[in-house]
Every structure is written in structure tokens, then in C-alpha cells.
Specification:
This protein is mainly β. Strands 2, 4, 5, 6, 9, 10 and 11 form a 7-stranded mixed sheet that branches. It has a 4-stranded antiparallel sheet with strand order 1-3-8-7, with no helix packed on it. It has no helices and 11 strands. Helix content is about 0%, strand content about 55%.
């Protein structure tokens, strides 16, 4: 079982920035696709951004141009830099990993992001 430990999040005003980080306890980081999902009350988790071992990224349309996901293979971490935040970005953000071989997934505990005046 992959353990994912998140950090970052908090309260920020619209137009502000936050950075989320996620550290993975795995032996071989390169066999995992890593990403961030977001969940709001009453809704399913939705993909925000993901990145594979080749640094190929995928973003939700709503965050393109504002969020940047990156990975550090040596530290086995991923980072989500969120700029120009909007109130609709509010939610619980979950770090996610998917093992390329079996498709097995793991989730972090979630971190709250609140964008409000």
C-alpha cells in the first residue's frame, strides 16, 4: 500500500496562490502516475491535474493556465502550484497515485483549500 502524505493548503483570497505537496512512500517512483483530485460537498472527486514519469501532464480545463503540477523523482514528491485562485477552486484536495502495472490506486488524507475574501 502506497502512503501519500500531503502538505500545504489553507485559506487564501481570490487571486492568491497556494502550493500543495505530496510525498510518496514507494521504492520506485517512476512506475506511478501521480496527481491531485478535488472534492466539494455533495460531489464526486474530480481530477485537477496529473503527471506521469515522463512529465506528461494533464489538467482539468478549469485550471489550465493557472495551476502547474510537477514531480521530483529524487524526493518522490509532487507539487501543485496554484495561482490566480478562484472561489470555485475551494475544496478538499487529495493526492492520488496509480500504479502503471496493475492500475492500483492510493489516496492521501486530503487537505482543505479555501478561496474566500
Amino acid at each position: 500500500q502506497v502512503q501519500l502524505v500531503e502538505s500545504g493548503g489553507g485559506l487564501v483570497q481570490p487571486g492568491g496562490s497556494l502550493r500543495l505537496s505530496c510525498a510518496a512512500s514507494v521504492r520506485i517512483f517512476s512506475v506511478f502516475v501521480m496527481g491531485w483530485y478535488r472534492q466539494t460537498p455533495g460531489n464526486q472527486r474530480e481530477l485537477v491535474a496529473e503527471i506521469d514519469a515522463g512529465d506528461i501532464t494533464n489538467y482539468a480545463d478549469s485550471v489550465k493556465g493557472r495551476f502547474t503540477i510537477s514531480r521530483d523523482s529524487e524526493l518522490k514528491t509532487i507539487t501543485l502550484q496554484m495561482n490566480n485562485l478562484k472561489p470555485e477552486d475551494t475544496g478538499v484536495y487529495y493526492c492520488h497515485s496509480r500504479f502503471v502495472g496493475s492500475g492500483s490506486v492510493s489516496w492521501g488524507q486530503g487537505t482543505q483549500v479555501t478561496v474566500s475574501k
